[in-house]
Amino acid sequence: MKIVKIIKILKNFYTLRVFEERDPYRVLIRTILSQRTRDENTDEATSRLFHEYPTIKDIAEAPIERIEWLIRPAGFYRVKARRIKEVSRIILEEYDGRVPSKLEDLLQLPGVGRKTANCVLVYAYGKAAIPVDTHVHRISNRLGLVDTRTPEVTEKKLREIVPREYWIELNDLFVQFGQEICKPINPRHDECPIKKYCNYYRLLSF
Description:
The structure is a single chain. This protein is mostly helical. The protein has 2 domains: 90 residues, Endonuclease Iii, domain 2 (Orthogonal Bundle); 100 residues, Hypothetical protein, domain 2 (Endonuclease III, domain 1, Orthogonal Bundle), CATH 1.10.340.30. Helices cover 60% and strands 0% of the residues. It is built from 12 helices and no strands. Helix 2 packs across helix 3 and helix 2 packs antiparallel against helix 8.
């Protein structure tokens, strides 16, 4: 199976990262902050926020203007601040301060789409899911694993073709691969370990 061969090659090429942060609430907030920004901006905004407001109750009660200022490095800070404060309130009031561990419940939270919810399942709870960000969406289409226009449809198709035992690893491997080699512009074909499986490379070669 093509996808299994690709995953095995990438596992030999990259080391699966060990994420220090496994607290479900912090994983959730970090993922919300990561939307439409770079990792370094997400890291700075997350650090600033939790340094000043370390608990979910702190954030739920914090002035919205202060949250906006703290998370400013992540961009779209006004929208993200409102979402973070509202999500924190809902989790406190409806889930006794515990982030839901079911996809359906996570998707009910404001500003939480399938990618964010699946990130919480994978990186906080260690549950089998496939978070589809821009890297996973782009690479899956370039390789010819799927032919889709949206991350939501990409996730659906990947769930059909990727054996469940590889779901947790897929996002991490494809993100590293997308950041270093299969970039949006000027992908580094000469260094690509899976180009023989890539429809995009094959088309460029003709």
